[in-house]
């Protein structure tokens, strides 16, 4: 009935009501019972209950008395703490305030009197955010930049649930600095402390100035002890620091070398008084300042009027300023002149001595001259070997190209028994000659110091398809099953050299495989593609695996094939230049596998210029006017016969002038131009195309036919929208490219 947690006054009141109820009940019992025994029994029970309640009441009173005593002690302790806190706040030199539940509870005079316009607001109950806003709005704050501490930070409350401490720097207009720090206690109260840091800031400022002055003295001392004339200027061209040597060497009065003097005034003084030899120098000196502002270094050598030579250099500084240094190089110049004079004198002496030796030993001189001439001839022959082979490609491939054109026509016309076999053997002989020449030219290019590569991104499937088309007849003739697994991967390499390498590997595999098959496929390995050529041929022994990559070398025990042993040498050279690793695994008697690792590339769009190889020669008559410009009469005649057999009307010329005259004679522009690059004298195919296009007033489609495979030449043709076919020309590519160029023009 009585809750012990309730206040003692309430418990006592409840006990009094209970006692009163019990007494009333006892009285009503006497009225109802009527017998003496019942009354006695009720009295005994009532007395026991009264004693129990009385004991409880006494305990409650004792507890209440103790609680009252403890409360009195707590009140006294709280008063002492408050007095001590007030005394401590008064004794503090810093401003201090206590906020409870975001409201000001207490503060000292230093806290209240810091900002006069905020003082009227600082009263108990002031909100913490209101206090921060009032401080930020105070007119006594210095809101300008300061060179020591930067721009003063705004007094603002940090956002974030976990923020329990924050500190700000506040600058007053009278150059007083205060640090405002507030901390949130574990009970949720906020204490604010205003600490004056003016002395610390001023001391730091004095220390900074002292260090700057000290560094300035050290820098000046270093400048003064240098033999060079040194002078530094600001980004605006004002003089900052210089040494006395600068004025001595330049001959400028001290009035112009004061701190802050403009660089332009010093230059004007030097030019006006002609201190330096100004022959051809005036425009350069006037442009010094502009050159330095562009970040360029300036270096000039002058001669003073008294004969002293000066080396003047100007360099920019990280703060957009610049430094000027002047060095006396008179001794160096004189020494150089003296040395040159001595060299001339010594040369004259040697010339005279040589003349005397020639007079007295004419025969010996003739012998030495003959030996020297022979040596020079041998060296010239040796050094020109590579250049000769590269330059000879045009003349070597011209007759082969013409012969292949005639063979193509002859194959279609012959029908007598045995004639086809003769033509086939003749064609195979020319193919062997062509392969050998191509191999020699490839080795010549790869061995030259200026080997060029055209690395692009292309689809590997087109390359493998071209290999399959080119080498399928060779595999069929040898009874070898050639299988090429298609691939849609894009790689980054020189397409021509990579195709040449794969062709050489496949040709070797076919030649050294008596029966079985040759498999070409691709395998992904990280960020690269490994092109692998498998065969079931004779295999390669361990000792031959490095030797076979040398020129004119074959594997031991292998039957002599139709080649010259140059294929693997070309593969090794090309892959070494292109940084494509080559791997070889082989078991004698069971076969070999060669692989070339090529880096992957992002997929792109294939174009005819990148892959001029076509699926097949197009059908139908070539109803076009084709102009051929070729200086070789046999090749011109052969190409004319081939094009006319396709149904084209051919205009043949051997030079740019003849082609222009022929086009003016017929009064119309041809549908397409087929032009050789190397013509007679200074004439060339690019000049021919420009001339005919200008004469026609239109972009006539053009194809350049040349043995030149240099990257610069191919890039130039690509930029000028010329298609390029390399000699010897494959007719299927020529026919398809003519159709593509003319159809593109119509579209």
TrEMBL record:
Keywords of this entry? Coiled coil, Kinase, Phosphoprotein, Plasmid, Transferase, Two-component regulatory system
Instruction: Name the Gene3D superfamilies for this protein.
Output: 1.10.287.130, 3.40.50.2300, Histidine kinase-like ATPase, C-terminal domain, PAS domain
Q: Which InterPro entries match?
A: CheY-like_superfamily, HATPase_C_sf, HATPase_dom, His_kinase_dom, HisK_dim/P_dom, HisK_dim/P_sf, PAS-like_dom_sf, Sensor_HK_Regulatory
Which superkingdom, per the lineage? Bacteria
Give the 4-aspartylphosphate positions (modified residues): 676
Record keyword Transit peptide present:
no
Enzyme class of the recorded protein, top EC level:
transferase
Q: Where are the annotated coiled coils located?
A: 57-84
Give the EC number.
2.7.13.3
Q: Which residues form the Histidine kinase domain?
A: 391-602
Identify the SMART domains for this entry.
HATPase_c (SM00387), HisKA (SM00388), REC (SM00448)
Query: Which CDD domains does its entry note?
Result: HisKA, REC
Q: What is this protein's name?
A: histidine kinase
């Amino acid at each position: 009935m009585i809750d012990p947690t309730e206040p003692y006054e309430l418990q006592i009141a409840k006990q009094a009501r209970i006692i009163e109820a019990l007494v009333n009940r006892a009285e009503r019992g006497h009225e109802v019972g009527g017998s003496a025994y019942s009354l006695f029994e009720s009295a005994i029970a009532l007395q026991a209950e009264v004693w129990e309640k009385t004991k409880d009441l006494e305990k409650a009173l004792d507890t209440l008395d103790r609680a009252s005593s403890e409360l009195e002690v707590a009140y006294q302790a709280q008063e002492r703490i408050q007095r001590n806190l007030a005394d401590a706040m008064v004794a503090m030199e810093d401003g201090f305030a206590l906020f409870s539940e975001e409201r000001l509870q207490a503060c000292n005079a230093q806290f209240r009197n810091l900002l006069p316009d905020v003082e009227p607001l600082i009263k108990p109950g002031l909100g913490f955010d209101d206090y921060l806003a009032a401080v930020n709005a105070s007119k006594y704050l210095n809101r300008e930049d300061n060179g020591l501490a930067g721009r003063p930070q705004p007094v603002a409350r940090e956002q974030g649930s976990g923020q329990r401490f924050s500190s700000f720097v506040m600058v007053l207009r009278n150059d007083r600095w205060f640090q405002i720090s507030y901390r949130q206690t574990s009970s949720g109260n906020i204490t604010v402390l205003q600490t004056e840091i003016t002395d610390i800031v001023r001391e730091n400022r004095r220390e900074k100035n002292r260090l700057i002055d000290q560094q300035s003295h050290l820098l000046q001392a270093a400048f003064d002890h240098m033999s060079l004339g040194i002078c530094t200027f600001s980004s605006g061209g004002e003089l900052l620091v210089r040494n006395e040597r600068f004025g001595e060497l330049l001959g400028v009065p001290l009035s112009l070398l004061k701190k802050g003097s403009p660089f332009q005034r010093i230059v004007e003084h030097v030019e006006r008084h002609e201190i330096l030899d100004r022959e051809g120098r005036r425009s350069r000196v006037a442009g010094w300042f502009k050159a330095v502002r562009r970040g360029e270094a300036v270096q000039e050598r002058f001669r003073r009027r008294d004969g002293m030579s000066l080396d003047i250099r100007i360099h920019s500084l990280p703060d957009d300023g610049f430094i000027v240094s002047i060095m006396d190089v008179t001794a160096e110049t004189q020494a150089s002149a003296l040395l040159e004079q001595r060299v001339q004198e010594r040369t004259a002496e040697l010339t005279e001595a040589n003349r005397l030796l020639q007079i007295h030993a004419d025969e010996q001189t003739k012998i030495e001259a003959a030996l020297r001439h022979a040596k020079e001839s041998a060296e010239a022959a040796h050094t020109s070997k590579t250049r000769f082979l590269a330059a000879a490609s045009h003349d070597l491939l011209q007759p082969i190209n013409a012969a292949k054109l005639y063979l193509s026509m002859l194959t279609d016309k012959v029908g007598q028994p045995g004639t086809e076999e003769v033509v086939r053997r003749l064609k195979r002989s020319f193919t062997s000659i062509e392969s050998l020449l191509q191999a020699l030219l490839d080795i010549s290019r790869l061995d030259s110091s200026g080997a060029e590569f055209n690395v692009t991104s292309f689809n590997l499937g087109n390359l493998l398809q071209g290999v399959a088309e080119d080498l399928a007849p060779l595999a069929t003739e040898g009874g070898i099953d050639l299988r090429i697994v298609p691939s849609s991967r894009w790689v980054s390499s020189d397409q021509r050299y990579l195709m040449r390498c794969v062709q050489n590997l496949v040709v070797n595999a076919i030649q050294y495989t008596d029966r079985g098959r040759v498999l070409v496929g691709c395998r992904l390995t990280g960020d690269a593609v490994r092109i692998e050529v498998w065969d079931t041929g004779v295999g390669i022994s361990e000792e031959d695996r490095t030797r076979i990559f040398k020129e004119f070398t074959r594997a031991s025990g292998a039957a002599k094939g139709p080649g010259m042993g140059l294929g693997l040498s070309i593969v090794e050279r090309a892959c070494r230049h292109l940084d494509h690793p080559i791997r070889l695994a082989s078991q004698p008697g069971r076969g070999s596998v060669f692989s070339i690792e090529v880096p992957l590339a992002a997929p792109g769009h294939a174009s005819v210029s990148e892959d001029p190889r076509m699926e097949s020669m197009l059908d139908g008559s070539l109803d076009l006017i084709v102009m051929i410009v070729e200086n070789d009469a046999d090749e011109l005649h052969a190409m004319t016969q081939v094009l006319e057999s396709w149904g084209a009307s051919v205009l043949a010329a051997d030079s740019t002038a003849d082609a222009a005259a022929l086009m003016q004679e017929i009064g119309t522009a041809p549908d397409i131009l087929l032009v050789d690059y190397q013509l007679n004298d200074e004439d060339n195919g690019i000049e021919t195309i420009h001339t005919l296009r200008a004469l026609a007033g239109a972009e006539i489609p053009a194809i350049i036919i040349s043995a030149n495979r240099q990257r610069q030449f191919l890039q130039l043709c690509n930029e000028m929208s010329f298609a390029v076919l390399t000699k010897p020309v494959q007719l299927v590519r020529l026919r398809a490219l003519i159709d593509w160029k003319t159809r593109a023009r119509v579209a």
